[in-house]
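Hey, can you fold this one?
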Amino acid sequence: MNDQRLATDGHKHPTIWIALTALFALAAIGLGIWAFTTKSDLDKEKDKVAEQQKQLSSTGGQLTTARSVDKATLAKARRTHRRLSRSLKAEDVKAKDLAREAARRENAVKQADANAARANSAEEQTQAELRQARAKQAASQTCAKGAAGALDDLLSASSPKAGAKGATAHLSSVQSACNAAGG
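Sure. Predicted structure:
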């Protein structure tokens, strides 16, 4: 009886082991396939990352170039702005000086007219008229400077409207001298 039990027990044991071995073999094959596909997916992702890094590197170079171009353009614009600002300030000073000169010339003509009107003798009258003529001549010169400046503003402006505005401002600043010279 013992021999039969051993034969039956020995016969049952190999079937379980065969089944377990087959199950483990299938699991190992499944894990192998899974590992192979995961490695393949990982390789594809590494290739994508490498390509993206290459593109990023290329774009970064372009961005650096664009930044340096923008910096260069900005620096050039700043230099141009400073130059134009200095030029405008100088023109503003010239316009104010011209307006002051026009006012002085107008006052000189008025004073010469008053002196000519108060002259008693012929000699005083002649001297007063001479001073009056010189004052009017100086006022005419100031008027001519203003007209030349107005023409320059008109011709060198960025637009006709801006030129007309600048010319009008120039002429307004010397109008009193022009009036004094004419009259």
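Residues 71-182 form one domain. Let me know if you want another pass with a different chain boundary.
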